[in-house]
């Protein structure tokens, strides 16, 4: 019997090992916790064809209605000498669509008839380990580039009163990490950060644009807009989606 991999546990252990290493080589360091939540504003498109050869193409927002969805994510970061940052991100998400399909859909070799109440659960959990170097670190400007190792733990499930089928998909995705901050004064900052990369097999972008306010040296708040877009066109699956978020967050510096 194979034991299921629990990605939060694996990433937590890996981050702790790296964190202990850096703590041993530097005392000029900061530990930060970024807790983010908010609402999924909508999915302009969520295009699915599974299997890619033989399945039925369906754009979920054209057929079904997405239920209002709250999200949350947490990032733990460790910065040394204001230049080197390692971070661990846990970002789970499930969006549920409900309604009636406009056409018969062959999903994962299971037929789902049109004009019947249908639920589709679209799960896209993300676990990321990032290293970034801040090549600009001035009073008002900060900019950095890095690399992110992302584990994508996704699942799509179609269900109606007579049929149910799901397609899980777990994979590794390398991404480029970007962080740009403008600080007009000691309290406020305008903030652009994210991970992104593309190839002939697909693309992935997760970008946040917003502002943050430091209440004191320890506690801050943030608010802004986040977009997650991308997907893959490979032998097993065709799926491209665009998700909009309205987000707020709590920033803790230890």
Describe the structure.
- This protein has helices spanning 7-25, 60-63, and strands spanning 29-49, 58-59, 64-66, 69-80, 84-91, 94-100, 105-107, 110-112, 117-137, 141-159, 164-182, 188-199, 202-214, 219-233, 238-253.
- The N and C termini lie far apart (42 Å).
- The protein has a single domain (7-253), classed as OMPT-like (Lipocalin, Beta Barrel).
- The protein is elongated.
- Helix content is 9%, strand content 69%.
- The protein is mostly beta strands and 254 residues long.
- It has 2 helices and 15 strands.
- A hairpin with a 4-residue loop joins strand 10 and strand 11 (164-182).
- It has a 10-stranded antiparallel beta barrel with strand order 1-4-5-9-10-11-12-13-14-15.
